[in-house]
Amino acid sequence: CLKEHPNLVKLQQRFPTAVHAIGANVDFDGRRTRPPESYEPRVRQFLDSVDARFVNFIVQTPSNEVYEAVGIGSIPTVLVFNSQGELVRQFVDVGETAGFTYQADIIPLVEQLLKDSGPPQTS
């Protein structure tokens, strides 16, 4: 995730009005000795270091419950939605999409979705 998040930042910067990036930190594993708030300083420091200026959540639900609810087996995971809010593709670093990259997989998909919905809005 630390390697992938800067790519999400770059995607948001490339399409500042057409793409709405959202980050979710799912480090919380349910231990009472390490509540979600305990991760916040480290997470905020990282987000500042990569200039992540979009919505980022520190998830309050244990990670295994998040994985089950969203239907993912591991992180990093990138979910791409269309302009109607429908899930178009899920990239997970296991199985069929293992080894996905922003350059080869995510950016071309986003560009195609933007093309299909009208003129791309780049900066």
**Element-level helix/strand string:** HEHEHEEH
Q: Report the radius of gyration as a whole number of Å.
A: 15 Å
Average pLDDT works out at 91
Residues in helices, as a percent range: 25-40%
Number of strands: 4
What would the principal axes of the Cα set say about the shape? Answer: globular
Percent of sequence in beta strands: 15-25%
Q: Major sheet, described briefly?
A: 2 strands, parallel
The spatial strand order of the largest sheet comes to: 1-2
Residue ranges: pLDDT <50 for 5 or more in a row? Answer: none
What's the helix count?
4
Structural class: alpha+beta
- Termini separation: 26 Å
Please write out the topology.
Blueprint: H1 5-14, E1 22-25, H2 40-49, E2 55-58, H3 63-70, E3 77-81, E4 87-92, H4 102-117
Parallel strand pairs: 1-2
Antiparallel strand pairs: 3-4
Descriptive labels:
alpha+beta, 4 helices, 123 residues, two-stranded antiparallel ribbon, 4 strands
Please describe what this structure looks like.
The protein has 123 residues and is of the alpha+beta class. It has helices at residues 5-14, 40-49, 63-70, 102-117, and strands at residues 22-25, 55-58, 77-81, 87-92. Strands 1-2 form a two-stranded parallel ribbon. It has a two-stranded antiparallel ribbon with strand order 3-4. It is globular, with a radius of gyration of 15 Å.
What's the short story on this structure?
The chain is α+β, with helices and mostly antiparallel strands and 123 residues long.
